[in-house]
Design a protein that fits this description.
mainly alpha
């Protein structure tokens, strides 16, 4: 089954949830010292739940949602939120962060 892509309008709904989820993963890992995989298995993500509501597709990794956004641009930088220049960009032109 192909992964459903998000339109701009859907992305506007998902994006703030995704930012919150990303922060949640980070603080959870800092507090508990667990790895990313365990954090993903343990936490529940509102962005993923909303994505499921919109598309009917179960995505358990919120990081993957960045890649499901349909756009002419690349995904947003996970560090500063700036849109990467192309979907294939390997780093952010704004802050220089590499795309995980
Ligand atoms: Zn950036």
């Amino acid at each position: 089954m192909p992964i459903p892509m998000l339109t701009d309008e859907e992305w506007e709904v998902i994006r703030p949830l995704l930012w919150a989820d990303t922060k949640k993963i980070k603080s959870y890992r800092e507090e508990s010292g667990v790895g990313l995989r365990e954090a993903l298995d343990t936490l529940r993500f509102r962005a993923c739940e909303k994505y499921y509501e919109i598309t009917g597709f179960r995505e358990t990794n919120p990081n993957a949602l960045w890649h499901h956004y349909l756009s002419l641009y690349g995904p947003e930088c996970i560090n500063c939120g700036h849109l990467l220049r192309t979907p294939k960009a390997s780093y952010c032109a704004n802050c220089g962060a590499s795309k995980n």
